[in-house]
């Protein structure tokens, strides 16, 4: 991960997250990563629903690159991390990892870029000032 602070979210694997063999379905790793990014924003005091409602801002993933290393399985407790790698005018790139427990085996790692969009036109929009202030602190 980058030298920046990582946000960590524990995620339990439920039966609904797995295929018939009890192994996490590959697309669900992206859902786990999304949860970590959303909770990271919440931990900074940034309310995504409020941004969408009051400022007409929303975020969308525009690029995802994930490397799957080992399978997660039913009932595993995962540690999903998110760290900001970089940001520019209208996007933030995250380095994310999913491990079996805190400090456990690396199961998946990825780079995710999320764009800030105008909720009405879906065109790029500058990152909100509150987020830029938080990014500058890290």
Give a quick rundown of the structure.
The chain has 138 residues and is of the alpha+beta class. It is 25% helix and 38% strand.
Q: Which tags fit this structure?
A:
138 residues, alpha+beta, Thiol Ester Dehydrase, Chain A, 5-stranded antiparallel sheet, 3 helices, 5 strands, elongated
Report on this structure.
The chain is of the alpha+beta class and 138 residues long. It has one domain: Thiol Ester Dehydrase, Chain A. The chain is built from three helices and five strands, in the order βααββββα. The protein has a five-stranded antiparallel β-sheet, with helices on one face. The two termini are 14 Å apart.
Q: Name the structural class.
A: alpha+beta
End-to-end Cα distance? 14 Å
Q: Give me the CATH superfamily.
A: Hotdog Thioesterase
* Sheet with the most strands, sense and barrel status: 5 strands, antiparallel
Q: Please give the domain count.
A: 1
Residue runs with pLDDT of under 50 for 5 or more positions: none
| CATH architecture title | Roll
Highest CATH level, the class:
Alpha Beta
Question: How large, in whole angstroms, is the Cα Rg?
Answer: 15 Å
Strand order within the widest beta sheet:
1-3-4-5-2
The total beta strand count reads 5
């Amino acid at each position: 991960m980058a030298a920046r602070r990582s946000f960590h979210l524990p995620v339990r694997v439920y039966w609904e997250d797995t295929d018939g063999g009890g192994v996490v379905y590959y697309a669900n790793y992206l859902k786990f990563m999304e949860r970590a990014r959303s909770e990271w924003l919440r931990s900074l005091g940034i309310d995504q629903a409020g941004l969408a409602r009051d400022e007409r801002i929303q975020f969308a993933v525009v690029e995802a690159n994930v490397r799957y290393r080992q399978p997660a399985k039913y009932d595993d407790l995962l540690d999903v991390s998110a760290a900001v790698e970089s940001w520019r005018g209208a996007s933030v790139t995250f380095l994310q990892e999913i491990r079996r427990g805190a400090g456990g085996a690396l199961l998946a790692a990825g780079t995710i870029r999320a764009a800030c969009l105008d909720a009405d036109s879906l065109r790029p929009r500058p990152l909100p000032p509150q987020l830029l202030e938080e990014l500058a602190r890290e």
